Give the backbone structure.
Amino acid sequence: MATFLHRIGRGAFTRRWLVLLLWAVVLGVAGAAAANSTGSGNSNITLPGIEAQKAYDLLGKKFPAANASGASARVVLRAPHGEKLTGGGPKAEVRALLKDLRDSSPRVASVTDPFTAKTVSADRTTGYAQVTYKAKPTDLTDADHRHLDDALDAARAKGLTVEASGNALAAAESSSSSEAIGFLLAAVILVMTFGSLAAAGMPLLTAVIGVGITMSSLTALTSALDLNSSTSALATMLGIAVGIDYALFIVSRYRSERAAGHDAREAAARANGTAGSAVVFAGLTVVIALVGLAVVNLPVLTAMGLAAAGAVVIAVLVAVTLVPALLALAPERVLGRAARKPRTVTKTPLGERWAVFVLRRPWKVLLVAAAGLILVALPATRLQLGLPDDGSKPPATTERKAYDMLAESFGPGFNGPLTVVVSDSDPATAKKAVGELTGTMGGAKDVVAVTPAVYNPAGDTAIITVVPKSSPSSEATKDLVHALRDQTADTRAATGAEALVTGTTALNIDIAAKFANAIVPYMLLVVGLAFLVLILVFRSLLVPLKAALGFLLSVLAAFGAMVAVFQWGWFKDLFGLQTTGPIMSLVPILLVGIVFGLAMDYQVFLVTRIREAYVHGAGPREAIVEGFRHSAKVVTAAALIMTFVFGGFIGGDDTMIKSLGLGLAAAVVFDAFVVRMTIVPAVLALLGDRAWSLPRWIDRRLPHVDIEGEHLTGAAPADREPAAREAGFTSVN
């Protein structure tokens, strides 16, 4: 591997303009394909294998009109204080509001009247109107959204309290400020690390090029592959993260090779052969983690994982081909002024001093670090998963205000009604099942009301609406869903009719359960496969095992931090958190995939330098110090960049984005600084030569990938432990 990448790096350095031209062509072709693409992202999410999705699919067949995908808005209105909507109340103002809603867009299909539709609360102070559109949410124009807002503002001016929710409202504008701030901080950290604008700019430039190619390709393929509109989010995040990291590692190694006395071309080639090999295998572990998202059996998540894996592959290719070519354009400026000046006094690097500190007392350091992570991870035992609804939005939003108004006037469960779908080929059987279910569900605990069944024209399928007493995210509502499903199972056994429980609340419960059940198998899969890859890289069993266990510790600690802040409300004012509740179901598994990739980046780059020193003759402890001397600074820079990038999302208004940002930032800090920079050297020091031993029968069957560049130097590994060989183990070869 090292020899192959050495040749690629040497060739890219020599033919720099050809390499630059080829990447420019690739970027141009991808951009042209994206510009000519007419498809838009699919906003529909299918969830195979869960009851709520089966019910939605059945509704699509039996109630096609009712299941139409047109946009809608629920407008909640309340009379002025001390007045009622009925009697001598503000009926004229309500009528004017309804007229303005009908006239707000030619795409409005209907607007219900709260008085005729009987959607006025029992105390007659609050009601709501349902606005239905002929167009999909994505097809509504800015004028449609503006006119809807104008209608609400006009009613407010007349004394009514009016708020709205639904997918017809304008989506909150996403700001790129977090990404921009992250890039700015990354530039500052890179300049401080390298002392050179040229060296700092290369990782940023290559990351932008890689992400540009990825995003253009995904845009071009959206229509052909029917990709979801959210597919690009994870690809962008990972593309930026690994794109910066991989180029950073190679540029840093280039500077080390120049300091060792090699000319520019040979230094670029050696950097590509050594650090480039680490990049390839780090990228492989990331791809494994992302492709492994398919185990959840959620199409949208599988697409996100594959798209992000593609972004990582592109980042690897850019790093091992474009970075050497860019180094050829500024071979001296990359070194920085300080590196080009002769030094009389050399200060011991901070990373080396930290390694020496850890090696003096490895047992104490290991116990303190591990105990600290375990303590932070304890709240993870109370992790609750769910999906965000209007009740989790900031109190200042109109959606949250509408949610609270409905809960106050109609009851907490009104915001999360359950839908029971009953169907049978024989209409008589369907009606019999409906009769039985209506009676049993009405007497269920935590049920406020059961509406009369609504049948389709054929009479073989009915919809029953059940309104819970408790809020959608409460444990009582979750228990109610399970109780109703027990009742539908009994009815199905007695009558043979299909009976399914669905609705947004049931769907959220099913998704949370699906993700909760998938996290452990997913982690076992990606950690297991990566364990095999790391055995190949490090030719050791104990080093990969330590890497996997350390990753689990850092991820669990990140889960604990999220639970403490977003469920329990610890330090919520510090993070600008206004509401607490369950963690979004998608966040933990995304966090595992992203952090696993970054953790393996830091593991591979740091430990390969340690193993490289060991292979070339250093003792176990000396190799640790040598590895930290060369790698600690660049790993620290990479981790700080990712921490600031992810931490920038904590300042957003969206609770899901805030939780993901906090979880990712915490996980990077825990993994890079506590696990890789503290626990790893402590464990390696305690293991000594045994860390690099491998059973002979495994060693004979593994290909030698030469990630340390052994064949580039002609050095042969030392035979350090004859006793280990006699016991059936081999050291590094």
